[in-house]
Amino acid sequence: MTRTPLLLALLAAGASPLASAADESDKTAPPATPAPFVATELAQFAEPWAMTFLPDGSLLVTEKAGKLKRYGKDGRIGEVSGVPRVAYRGQGGLGDVVLHPKFADNGLVYLSYAELDASGERDDDGKRGAAVARAHLVLDDAGGGALSDIEVIWRQTPKVDGAGHYSHRIAFAPDGHLFISSGERQKFDPAQDMQMNLGKIIRLNDDGSVPADNPYQDDGELAKTFWSIGHRNVLGLAFDAQGRLWEHEMGPQGGDELNLIARGRNYGYPIVSNGSHYDNRDIPDHDTRPEFEAPKAWWTPVISPAGLVIYSGDVFPEWKGDAFIGGLSSKALVRIEFDGDNAREAARYDMGQRIREVEQSPDGGLWLLEDGTKGSGGRLLKLEPKAAAPAA
């Protein structure tokens, strides 16, 4: 990204650093908005990565090192046994957890994780890739549960060295199809390679089989699983009330993106990006290559997005239809407003810690997971509206 005369004039004039696709400026981080909520700590977890609510109101939480925890409404924390062995290193480990849309009937839960090479034995220098498995979940009266009948239904191909950019977020579409984000594993070119499923958004049936109406039917068997291509490191997937799929992904040095995902479109990485390489080499911006789909919002400096929910509850009625993104390096909760197919950052709430995950509770509340580290826990936070000030 280069500084244009327009950009310099905007900066000199103190232009607002709004994160939108229409804004060509090299932005500085906006000031945090005073939070209209209070955050209550409910529990702590070791490097939590994702969470999802169960019908009984309890909460499943993944811990990156390979444990699946269950947080009960009474505050008890139990463990769910039977989790597959994970490749816990770098960004790898246990990832997302999502319930089947008909979980109440079939008890199916889906997990994503980084797995070892084909031998399943090497833990330090073997090749790795993300996988998605589904299993039956049976809860117990002690506050935990167990997984059974575990079946791997998808794998990144090929497995490569390194321990970054797995992505492996999972989301079910309103029509029941399963979407998986597959990062390009810090290898750049696979995002455009139709013989690899790295750097892609994947669309499958709930059993892992391939829908016949996926867009890339003439590019090989693996490509038949692709829904869109040209992605970097997608750490948020969510459907809005209109059934549209939104995702966010980390840019390189600058250029974090929020994208509206369309069937069969190419989002350009690594050919274009609104960021630069870490050695400061330029990457052409999206507007130089209109054949690639441009982001609806983007950030430089980055927010390091993680977790995504599009809010539909009544606890915060003024936010219905807005999206919320957790910020890692920005240590923030970022609120997004939509206007048709367009999006913009509406507010940024300083949380003081790296936010890994955002989820909506069954009663319409907002819950967050802090990132945590090996040496300290990540807190589970419940957000509630601040009480209105009494009339004078």
**Percent helix:** under 10%
What do the pLDDT scores average to? 91
Q: Can you tell me the residue ranges where pLDDT is under 50 for at least 5 consecutive residues?
A: 1-26
- Rg estimate, integer Å: 20 Å
Our count of helices gives 2
Give the strand content.
35-45%
Strand adjacency order, main sheet: 2-3-4-5-9-8-7-6
Major β-sheet, in short? Answer: 8 strands, mixed
Query: From the helix content, strand content and strand pairing, which structural class follows?
Result: mainly beta
N/C terminus separation: 52 Å
Q: How many strand elements?
A: 24
The succession of helices and strands, N to C, reads: HEEEEEEHEEEEEEEEEEEEEEEEEE
Keywords: Signal
Organism: Chiayiivirga flava
Pfam families: GSDH (PF07995)
InterPro entries: 6-blade_b-propeller_TolB-like, Glc/Sorbosone_DH, Quinoprot_gluc/sorb_DH_b-prop
Describe the structure.
By secondary structure, this protein is mainly β. The chain has a domain of 114 residues. Helices cover 3% and strands 40% of the residues. The protein has two helices and 24 strands. Strands 2-3-4-5-9-8-7-6 form an eight-stranded mixed sheet, with no helix packed on it. A four-stranded antiparallel sheet has the order 1-24-23-22, with no helix packed on it. A four-stranded antiparallel sheet has the order 10-11-12-13, with no helix packed on it. The longest helix is centred in the first third of the chain and has 8 residues. Keywords: Signal.
